[in-house]
Amino acid sequence: MNIKKYRFGEPFCTDSTVIDLPIEKESPDYISLKEDNLFISMSLNDSDAIYGLGEQMGGINKRGRKYRSFCSDDPCHTEEKEALYGAHNFFIISGETTVGYFIDFPGTVHYDMGFTVEDEITISLEGKDADFYVINGENELEVVKNFRELIGKSYMPPMWAFGYQQSRWSYANKEQVDAVVDGYEKADIPLDSVILDIDYMDHYKDFTIDDKAFPNFESYVAELKKKGIRLIPIIDAGVRCEDGFDVYEEGVKNNYFCKDRNGDDFKAAVWPGICCFPDYLKADTRKWFGDKFHTLTDKGIEGFWIDMNEPALFFSMEGFKKAVDFVKQYNGEDLDCWDFFEYRDQFSKLSNSIDDYKNMHHLDGKYSHYDVHNLYGYMMTRGVGECLPKDTLLFSRASCIGSHRYGGIWTGDNTSWWSHILLNLRMLPSLNMCGYIYTGADCGGFNGNASRELVIRWMQLSVFTPLFRNHSAIGTRNQEAYAFSNNKEFKDVIEVRYRLIPYLYDLAKKCAENNEMMFKPLAFEYKDALSKETDDQVLLGDEAMITPVYEQNKSGRTVYLPEEMTFYKLSGNKVVHKEKLEKGVHFVNVALNEVPLFVRKGKKIPLCNTGKNVDNLDTTIVEYLEG
Length: 627
Ligand code: GLC
Description:
alpha/beta, 25% strand, binds alpha-D-glucopyranose, nine-stranded parallel sheet, 14 helices, 36 strands
């Protein structure tokens, strides 16, 4: 294994890696200690590209921007954002030489990747205790493979999890879920799962079911299962503080919750109101919380999504009181603009505040949450993943390298913006590099109202991502495939997914087992200048290239072919177009009911016939798309 490990101080054991390497005696000279913080300074050559960092904004090449590793509950993914829900401290600098770096550190890491000074990387850690790995390899793919070997095999869900999932915040009762199932049935569009968002619970309390909304939950789960449809409930990180609520009472009694700086259970509000937060960094808490999922698996549930585990904190009582006191003190005053802004921001600053993260403590008060923040979602995923029966679907919002062994991730609260189709595409290789294979974005966009065209174009990408889930926020326009006019076009696109399932599932499995990437930047395979700059197309396995249309009112798009390929368009159960295209730039037409796919020379993609859902899918291969 071509990896060198360096240790600084006494790092917190994150269990992000699975191989214990010897620690090098001398550390690289580009790492130094500045005022108790580790600081990395490297220079970049003109031709260097930077890849990795997992769930982040920006292009496939990460050069020229700032990033921050700090799992963030931020529902507005605009261009300048530096941190989303994941903390993935692995990147590759690729130019004349190709080297990977992994910073195993649970706190905040600030990256300036040639933003302030074009040819300089500066990385600062908020702390002095970390393991630092330098990963070598012949090329990018080998560096990724070596790194992934270090961090252990990626999670793989059962095959049905590759079916199409319909979600919305929220289908709040049985009637609404039935309407979704009916909608798909009537439109004859395949469907594998319906997601239950927070409203299925009693007052948003974990492991409860509102039995007025879902009477006889267990038999309902069984009834849907007979049709090949599964319900996937949400579980949130925080536990409602309510006397008589068994989960809360057990947590208090057994010391399972995080503490505040006075040693009391730390409390802050999320959906259910004031909550306590299981200390997932403790093994016994993980086991306790993970075992709680059996209340739902016992009722026939086979998949879960876990959320708000950065953790998201709406407000703490102390924070709220401070804001109220501040506001009271200025009431009736003649404020200047700056005072007014401060006054106005008091309440918006309450959520996910650093003060609250600093007050929250782990491992019986030993560690301030802020210092180990990025482990929270990871350790929740770990606890749940370790306790769930084999072949249960699990995906999380917050993540940190290590959690890839226990569950997948979705990329959080995006928006129904065209640019977010592209963002979705660009994140795929970076996430694969960091170990996340079962992943996808909210197809159609979570926030905002989606147009018919946007949803269908987005689906033309999502048919290739392991997690294919249409999800949208409360109050937004309905974006189920049957909700739009001429839903036959949605059917044509979603049906293509089912034809590809044997291929996609095998590919994902192979990538998880062999530490390979399912989605690769063109630059990882082709060394020409244009491939290096192409970041609106990615390679799928070793066989193909995907090129979604991500702009409005377009009949197609321009694609770059680094070599001759065969261009296919699939629609429903048919291959409607096949054309050999030369190396070079082409404009290709893609109708709304078609899925474009380029097959590489000498490669082939197997297809089965489409089906209603994975349980009812005949996975016999009926034809090949040959390149
Ligand atoms: C968070 C999740 C979103 C979910 C909502 C309500 O915003 O990211 O997917 O719908 O909470 O549970």
